[in-house]
Amino acid sequence: MKIYFTASAKYKDKRKKVYQRIVSYLQKESHEVFEKVLSTHLPDVSRISAREIKAWHQKWSAYIRECDLVIFEGSYPSTIHIGFELGLILAKGKPTVLLFQEGKDPTLISQIYSNRLVKSEYTEDNLEEVIAWCLEEVEKISHRRFTFYISPEIDEFLDRVSDKKTISRSKYIRALIEKEMEG
Questions:
Q1: What is the 3-state secondary structure (H, E, C) of the chain?
Q2: Cα 172 from Cα 183, distance rounded (Å)
Q3: How far apart are CA 78 and CA 140, in angstroms?
Q4: Looking at residue 44, what is its pLDDT?
Q5: Ramachandran bin of 43, using left for φ above 0, alpha for ψ from -120 to 50, beta for the remaining angles
Q6: Per-residue confidence at 13, pLDDT binned at 50, 70, 90?
Q7: Given a cut of 70, is residue 34 above it in pLDDT?
Q8: Of the candidates 53, 54, 72, 94, which lies 20 to 30 Å from 144 by C-alpha distance?
């Protein structure tokens, strides 16, 4: 899966080991991780032009569109950016995980409710197990069953397309919907 990870940049030095453990675990599990807290993905806006900021924002937006899920480490939501980013990403319908250290429940952002949000507390000893559990929960909420009635003509058409393209009927319909969503 493509996963976007973010956390408080203000507490980067204090929380760096935890952030690295999260990213390392995800990479070890063969996920592609885009993060801006531990690397240089987040530009110093005081030193770059408006054009560069816009280009960076477009790159970030494209990755958010492409990612399968987002993970927030929210133990120290030091600025409004974590809550703003969380709301923005949930509004886009992305499955989202909010991790927080035991006893550090991020009061303001933990009040957000969404059926696409998985919240979980962790300790130093169980961080990887909690992430694994969260990923399982995201898998459960990511795929929804949707049933509808079709005419016999549509049924026959879907059978022909399915045989011709050697894909399932539902995969064909999903591809049509995804194509329409992009356009």
A1: CEEEEEECCCCHHHHHHHHHHHHHHHHHCCCEEEECCCCCCCCCCCCCCHHHHHHHHHHHHHHHHHCCEEEEECCCCCCHHHHHHHHHHHHCCCCEEEEEECCCCCCCHHHCCCCCEEEEEECCCCHHHHHHHHHHHHHHHHCCCCCCCCCHHHHHHHHHHHHHHCCCHHHHHHHHHHHHHHC
A2: 17
A3: 31
A4: 62
A5: beta
A6: confident
A7: yes
A8: 72
Domain 2-142 in this protein, CATH class: alpha beta
Helix 169-182 to helix 152-165 angle, to the nearest 10 degrees? Answer: 90
The pLDDT, as a whole number, for residue 39 is 64
Q: Which two tokens stand for residue 146?
A: 């949707």
Delimit the domains of the chain by residue range.
2-142, 152-182
